[in-house]
């Protein structure tokens, strides 16, 4: 498959185009075209239509339980988290049986909303408790008398966050203040500035001067073909996306190289998963473990009420294993990057 540039880019640096230097900084690698696996279909009805937005921690489709036994997965953890075969109450309330199943992408979560009077990319940053508050919270979790909710002091218990940080939209609030989730975190966002060192790979996929972002999406002329295109940030407003690439999460998709790093965004819910088994624990477990279509990071169900329910293949396999000899999980090829060809990688 011969690579070719997306029609969304101008390589000549002409007036009104992003210019050659910025394109090359993103890696001369914008020419790669991708064909998703057979289990993935487009979910769009328009050019950049969307499903749900990730504005809080997503619950799992199955109920999990904690056992007071040493974890075989994490050293010094005095408890195990195990999967049950029971669908969670949240999943049932959201009518997960009639939800749209999409591929869960293995990257880092981002959000596009206005900042400084223009569309901006925001990075996910959860506000976490300081050491003393974390110790108290862990003691509460391990206590047998933890029927009541843990009491937080949001003014004193949490680490400082950068200027501009805001809590995610769906975070619960009490008296106007954000309430931590069941993990003791407050999900939130921080704006990605142009010259940010901490978020340099985030900033590599946007150009605020021209108001565009690098996005993997379906080619409108060739169904089933994916392309990296320059998309106006204004088309992505209030949407959450996943940033993937060479320097994100250990690069599970094998994108780019050290010399030519490649990063881009994928809208959440972009790829629908077909031919799923029934929503039974063992059937899903077998699908992730044995089927070619199941060689993906996981599944996110987009429910009719806007609720998002997830299940990670790796986590489901790990939680279902009983002995330490079974903890190793074999990483699998990802459907997004099947038949991938990227020059220079």
UniProtKB/TrEMBL annotation:
Entries under InterPro entries matching the protein: RLIG1
The protein's Enzyme Commission number: 6.5.1.3
UniProt keyword terms in alphabetical order: ATP-binding, Ligase, Nucleotide-binding, RNA repair
UniProt keyword Nucleotide-binding, yes or no: yes
Catalytic activity, reaction form: ATP + (ribonucleotide)n-3'-hydroxyl + 5'-phospho-(ribonucleotide)m = (ribonucleotide)n+m + AMP + diphosphate
Key word Cell membrane present: no
EC class name: ligase
Chain coiled-coil ranges: none
Gene Ontology MF: a single term: RNA ligase (ATP) activity
GO biological process terms, semicolon-separated: response to reactive oxygen species; RNA repair
Origin: domain of life: Eukaryota
Cofactor: Mn(2+); Mg(2+)
Known role: Functions as an RNA ligase, in vitro. The ligation reaction entails three nucleotidyl transfer steps. In the first step, the RNA ligase reacts with ATP in the absence of nucleic acid to form a covalent ligase-AMP intermediate and release pyrophosphate. In step 2, the ligase-AMP binds to the nucleic acid and transfers the adenylate to the 5'-PO4 terminus to form an adenylylated intermediate. In step 3, the RNA ligase directs the attack of the 3'-OH on the 5'-phosphoanhydride linkage, resulting in a repaired 3'-5' phosphodiester and release of AMP.
PANTHER family given in the database record: CHROMOSOME 28 C12ORF29 HOMOLOG, RNA LIGASE 1
Record protein name field: RNA ligase 1
């Amino acid at each position: 498959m011969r690579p070719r540039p997306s029609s969304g880019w101008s390589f000549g640096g002409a007036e009104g185009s992003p210019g050659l230097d910025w394109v090359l900084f993103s890696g001369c690698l914008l020419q790669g075209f991708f064909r998703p696996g057979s289990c993935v279909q487009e979910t769009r009805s328009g050019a950049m239509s969307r499903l749900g937005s990730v504005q809080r921690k997503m619950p799992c489709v199955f109920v999990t339980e904690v056992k007071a036994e040493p974890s075989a997965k994490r050293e010094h953890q005095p408890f195990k988290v195990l999967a049950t075969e029971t669908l969670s109450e949240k999943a049932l309330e959201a009518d997960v049986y009639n939800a749209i199943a999409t591929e869960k992408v293995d990257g880092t979560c981002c959000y596009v909303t206005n900042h400084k009077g223009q569309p901006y990319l925001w990075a996910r940053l959860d506000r976490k408790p300081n050491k003393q508050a974390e110790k108290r919270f862990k003691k509460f979790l391990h206590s047998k008398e933890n029927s009541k909710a843990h009491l937080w002091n949001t003014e004193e218990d949490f680490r400082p966050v950068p200027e501009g940080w805001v809590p995610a939209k769906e975070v619960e609030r009490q008296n106007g203040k954000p309430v931590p989730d069941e993990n003791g975190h407050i999900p939130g966002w921080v704006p990605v500035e142009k010259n940010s060192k901490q978020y340099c790979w985030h900033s590599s996929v946007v150009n605020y001067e021209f108001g565009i972002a690098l996005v993997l999406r379906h080619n409108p002329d060739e169904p089933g073909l994916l392309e990296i295109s320059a998309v106006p940030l204004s088309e992505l407003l209030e949407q959450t996306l996943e940033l993937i690439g060479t320097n994100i999460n250990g690069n599970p998709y094998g994108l780019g190289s050290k010399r030519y790093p490649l990063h881009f965004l994928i809208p959440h819910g972009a790829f629908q998963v077909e031919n799923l088994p029934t929503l039974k624990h063992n059937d899903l477990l077998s699908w992730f473990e044995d089927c070619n279509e199941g060689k993906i990071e996981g599944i996110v169900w987009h429910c009719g009420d806007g609720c998002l329910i997830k299940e990670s293949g790796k986590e489901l396999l790990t939680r279902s294993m009983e002995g330490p000899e079974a903890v190793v999980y074999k990483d699998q090829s990802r459907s997004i990057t099947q038949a991938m060809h990227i020059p220079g990688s």
